[in-house]
């Protein structure tokens, strides 16, 4: 086995870990910016148009419950009741709640509809940019490269084909290779002979790789190996973080609605549930408004 076998193996492990991390970043962003918007649109067209007014009604009912609570507290404390101030406070709480929900939804994007070729080009360019300019895997980037990478993330999140193309061209400027000498292959040997040489080299490398992977733990790592091992550990930590993020994204909306959306019976059952919830909201709203009016009468009489 060659002297450099272990080091070669470690370098290959780094290349493999790096590629796995790149694939995870791409999977995460594809879920966020490509799959989620399409699934969300399908959901809104099928279910969302019926669900949204129900959710709005339920929010209004929750606000009325809160209003009853505030008025009752004021009555108990014998404090003055300023309905305008209460309504203003409740509106602030309502908007804060809506804002928090929107912020928590990482897939909330209104995006243009791309054809298959545009989407393929966008994903390819973004993948290459991620591989070469993601700050977590390329610590030596300049400030300009980091800024352009962030712009690429923004362009991908908005499915902005033209911006991505511009950023891609700025990061990958064509190189003039005319002055670089090219090593000529040995054309004297036959194709079969060259193929045999390549097969022998490939077999040797393959043997080295798997044997090194099996034996490495039995040897004390060299000082130079530690740098590579630290990088492997860093990639492993990053990979686990991105895997957790992907799991979180796919467990939330709209991915958690895919089963209902893709099953007609489940869709019909949920729409029936929405009708019941809507009726319940109307009933609760009337009861709460009556309760508020009664509380105000009690306070006036008191």
What does this structure look like?
The chain has 302 residues and is mainly alpha-helical. The protein has one domain. Helix content is 78%, strand content 0%. It has helices spanning 5-76, 83-104, 116-133, 143-157, 161-171, 191-215, 223-251, 258-262, 264-301. The longest helix is centred in the first third of the chain and has 72 residues, at 5-76. The radius of gyration is 30 Å and the shape is elongated. Residues 174-187 have low confidence and may be disordered.
SSE blueprint and pairings:
Blueprint: H1 5-76, H2 83-104, H3 116-133, H4 143-157, H5 161-171, H6 191-215, H7 223-251, H8 258-262, H9 264-301
Q: Residue ranges: pLDDT <50 for 5 or more in a row?
A: 174-187
Shape: elongated
The fraction of residues in strands falls at under 5%
Would you tell me the overall average pLDDT? 80
Q: How many individual domains?
A: 1
Short description:
78% of the residues lie in helices and 0% in strands.
Q: How would you describe this structure in keywords?
A:
302 residues; single chain
């Amino acid at each position: 086995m060659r002297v450099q076998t272990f080091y070669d193996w470690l370098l290959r492990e780094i290349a493999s870990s790096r590629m796995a991390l790149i694939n995870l970043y791409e999977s995460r962003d594809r879920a966020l910016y490509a799959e989620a918007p399409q699934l969300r649109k399908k959901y809104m067209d099928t279910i969302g148009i019926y669900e949204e007014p129900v959710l709005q009604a339920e929010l209004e009912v929750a606000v009325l419950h809160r209003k009853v609570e505030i008025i009752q507290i004021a009555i108990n404390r014998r404090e003055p009741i300023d309905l305008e101030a209460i309504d203003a406070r409740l509106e602030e709480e309502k908007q804060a709640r809506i804002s928090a929900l929107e912020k928590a939804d990482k897939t909330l994007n209104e995006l243009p509809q791309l054809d298959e070729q545009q989407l393929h080009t966008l994903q390819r360019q973004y993948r290459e940019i991620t591989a070469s300019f993601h700050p977590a895997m390329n610590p030596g980037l300049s400030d300009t490269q980091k800024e352009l990478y962030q712009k690429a993330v923004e362009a991908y999140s908005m499915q902005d084909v033209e911006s991505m193309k511009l950023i891609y061209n700025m990061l990958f400027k064509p190189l003039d290779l005319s002055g670089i000498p090219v090593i000529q292959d040995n054309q004297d040997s036959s194709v079969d002979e060259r193929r045999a040489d390549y097969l022998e080299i490939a077999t040797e490398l393959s043997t080295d790789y798997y044997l090194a992977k099996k034996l490495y733990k039995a040897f004390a790592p060299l000082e130079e190996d530690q740098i590579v091992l630290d990088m492997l550990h860093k990639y492993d930590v990053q990979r686990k973080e991105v895997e957790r993020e992907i799991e979180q994204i796919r467990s939330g909306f709209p991915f958690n609605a895919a089963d209902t959306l893709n099953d007609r019976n489940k869709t019909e059952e949920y729409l029936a549930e929405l009708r019941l919830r809507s009726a319940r909201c109307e009933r609760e709203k009337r009861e709460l408004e009556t309760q508020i009016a009664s509380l105000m009468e009690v306070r006036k009489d008191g």
